Amino acid sequence: MRLGVAGPVGTGKSSILATLCRELAGELAMAVVTNDIYTDEDARFLRSAGVLPTERIRAVETGACPHTAIRDDVSANLDAVEDLEEAYGPLDLVLVESGGDNLTATFSPALADAQLFCIDVAGGGDVARKGGPGITGADLLIINKTDLAPHVEVDVAAMVADASRSRDGLPVLALSRHDPASVAELADWVRELLVRHRAGTHVPTDPGPMAPHSHSHDGS
To answer: Which NCBIfam families match (predicted)?
Structure first.
């Protein structure tokens, strides 16, 4: 199963990947593919954290807007996944991390069997109300870094309620890597998803297309 992890810059995507590897690598055969425009920094972070054997963590340098390689042309990511499967398979779970993008970033179903979207309390309590395909349609929405809420004056319960109203019954998880109960809930969600995937009862869905936008990559 390929699980995509998307969300804006700084929301904690790489930390979530590390957390999932720590929780699940003892029971599942896992690998990770990271995406970034010009760097392999996220892959180096995960390797240095020792969460998986270093050779099971691959970096894709997209050279373009982060959404390009997870939605528009997923071939580089699929090649990385297939190389990992050929070298270390059979694999149970491959985590594919998007480069940081905006609230509309979504994975193509051709790449991700399921996807979670990450926002965080430091981004502001109103982020969940802003919507966008990533927030409203991902299989799981994570509101991350809840331990920081008192320091940024955010009401986590209100943020979860706003997100739940936006998601029409899809799950929302308030997460802190320092909170064992929320970490266990995330790991259990992945386990249950994998059971459904193996049984053929989970059908990959498309949360919706990216909103039209542009980025400047010329350093200006």
So the answer is: ureG
